[in-house]
Amino acid sequence: MKTVEIFKTDVRDEKNACEIIKFLLVQYKTVYKINFDLEDEDNILRVEANRTEIKIRDIIQTVVGLGYCRLTKFRTA
Question: Which of 39, 47, 51, 75 sits in a 20 to 30 Å window from 9, CA-based?
Fold first, then answer.
């Protein structure tokens, strides 16, 4: 079963988005597919997993720890 979580972020440029994706994939490379939609007004971070659980709290703490102050769970798709 595939699970998708959507987050609002304050990431505004492709360079920062790529840095976050690379960092998260080092931690979760075999579990998650991760991408940004920076054209969306909420600068969406989308995390997809081929299992039922995504570690939402860990993702939020990691991204905030990288210096991005706004990352909130938006919805489960």
Answer: 51
